[in-house]
Amino acid sequence: MIDWDNGLRVKQNDLYLDSRRPQRLCFVSHAHTDHLAAHDRALGTPQTLAIAKLRTSFASEIVLPFGQKYSLPDIEICLYSSGHVLGSAMLHGSVAEGSFLYTGDFKLRPSLTVPPAEPVQADWLIMETTYGKPFFRFPPRQQVIDELLDRVAKALANGFQPIVLGYALGKAQELIRILTDAGFPVTEHGAVAMLSSIYEKQGVNPGPRRRYRSADFKGPSALTLEERGVLIAPPNVARSAFIEQFEKRVTMMCSGWALLSGANYRYGVDHVLPLSDHADFDELVELVERVRPKKVLTLHGFAEFADYLRDRGVDATTAKPDPQLRLFN
After folding, report:
1. How far, in whole angstroms, is CA 156 from its chain's centroid?
2. Of 127, 256, 260, 264, which is the most buried if we count CB atoms within 10 A?
3. How far apart are CA 133 and CA 167, in angstroms?
């Protein structure tokens, strides 16, 4: 049903799944760059394809809203929310041999900016396992949010510029919504602002915010710290001159890797908080329980998750035939 040919492929009709190499036909689960290539035909949700076109090009597209069935040669497909970022989707496919569910990146926890994941039953489950070790159990979401809001409030009260880093697609918009719902003004980096505008065009409002302008921070027309509020920026600026311009600052990164010792040094920030767009270990297990597959294929992240499932009687193996990278052993 599913095999590996320089990427995941549905054998019946050469439909590839999140291939990093250009293919004749490929499902794009979401628009993060590590899931994109310049395919001849790309299949995905309207939101995903709208964002993907900012980062790559496709010769043609098959645009599918959630829940709408579509027939390809020898396969019927339907997309469901994966709860990851705007437009992110799981693909459910039915072929003569049975059914499969491909998750792409996903999470089961609630979100303020993304519809909840909708896993459905399938014979085969092909799932990402980014946090596929028992160590990666995230604290309750509200606990992490409370810590974020407390650190931001203290920074502002002490005259320090709070700078919160999160991926420009998905994490940043969730952070804006969390902060603005709590009453904090937000200024967004230009890379974040471009994607926030797409969220708005697709009917998802991250909240009130202003785009970063240097004149708002320095010079005769500079805003007060209270007016410009929290600065939201992508992680790649952590050690850049953009950040260094703020002599009094408190920097925070939001990532599931916050659970690793020394994560703040890895990211070059003062604090790292475990707010993630990915499923933690318990959510990975929950997905398997909800889908009730006969076979599980795992990919991305920890190959040990397949070992864990096999120890519990689940027919599970890694999707890629050669051994996957085992991180942080």
Report:
1. 29
2. 127
3. 23
d(CA 193, CA 312): 45
- Give the SS3 label for residue 329: coil
pLDDT of 323 higher than 70: no
CA distances from residue 118 to 102, 150, 265 in whole angstroms, order as listed? 12, 33, 36
80: nearest Cα among 115, 47, 111: 115
Model pLDDT, residue 322: 57
CATH fold for the domain made of 141-273: Rossmann fold (3.40.50)
Kindly report, residue by residue over 226-247, the tens digit of the pLDDT. Answer: 999 999 999 999 999 999 999 8
Q: Residue 14 has what pLDDT?
A: 86
- CATH code for the part of the protein at 2-135+278-318: 3.60.15.10
Q: Is residue 209 within a helix (H) or strand (E), and if so which, with residue range? A: none
93 vs 112: CA distance, rounded Å = 28
Give the pLDDT score at 13.
82
How is the chain split into domains, by residue range? 2-135+278-318, 141-273
Q: How many CB atoms lie within 10 A of CB 11?
A: 13
The pTM of this model reads 0.93
Check: CB of residue 163 under 8 Å from CB of residue 231: yes
Residue 325: band (very low, low, confident or very high) from pLDDT cuts 50, 70, 90: very low
Structure tokens at 211: 């785009």
